[in-house]
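Dear Dr. V.,

Thank you for agreeing to look over these. As mentioned in my earlier message, I'm a first-year student in the group and I'm still getting used to reading structure tokens, so any feedback on how I've presented them would be very welcome. I ran two proteins. I've put each sequence directly above its structure. The first is here:
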Amino acid sequence: MDLLNGFKRITEPTDQGVTLTEVKDHVGIEDDDDMLDAVISSMLPAARRTVENLLWRTIPITTYKLTLDRFPHSDHIIELPEPPLIRIQSIQYVDQEGNTQTLDEDQYQVDSVSEPGRLAPGRGPRPEPLVPARVVADTIAGHAGPLAGILAG
């Protein structure tokens, strides 16, 4: 299974991890120029994505969706890209009758301490989905707080 093909950002964060004032202070811009502020502000999302790609980390809190063709084998651990993992929001699958079901939390284990975060089967029985590409896990990843603390730590 190629997880990266099935791992997609589903919400673009509104917080860029750094404010316009912090950027201007860092580069020594003291002017209050609305046009310059607009240009810098428009560059913040691309700058954040560049930092995320270089560090292989999610900066602001972001929601991702992992789609798999099937449940992995019982001993298979899924490493979730884009650390740090905060939590698994839900895992859904299509049952034998074609209905979407949500797994109970005791049917999977989450390791949000390791980086990358890990998802493993729980101790209970695992259902087999009827429809290919229909096991979907919604994950929350990122840092709550200023970017400076992330880069320093």
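The second protein is here, in the same arrangement:
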Amino acid sequence: MNEPPSAQEGSANTDDLTAEALVASGSAMDWPAIESRLDSINTGLEDLRHLLSAGRATLKKRFMSGSPTGELVTDFAQLVDLVILAAWNRSAAALEEVALVAVGGFGRGELHPYSDIDLLILLPKLAREKRKAAGDQVAIFLTTLWDIGLEV
């Protein structure tokens, strides 16, 4: 019987992913490397999905090795924040006078592994033709988040 793809992934694949997101000691996220990767990639869906997977694998490895959960939920929130900003820049950054606000646990900088992400998008009062264009860009942004595996 075939197992789902996630069950078939070996530890080598997980080790490759975690190597991308951990400092050499393996005890913390390598934020400069993660930010550099976000700056250097095209921020396509596969790149964002891969970076999110690498971060999740890293956090799981740290959890299994006994890292404090407070650090892990803070680090996960920071990782998701960076990924969301990259997705925003990819799809909706051209919107003028718009605020993207993190609320709830995510807004407090605490995000558990399977938590949903609460976002508030504030738009100015727009003329009808601009409202449709802004709505389309916001829809592309939200679809990007869903497509990379974030529950918004």
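From my reading of the second output: The longest strand covers residues 99-103. The chain has a mean pLDDT of 82. Does that match how you would interpret it?

Kind regards,
E.
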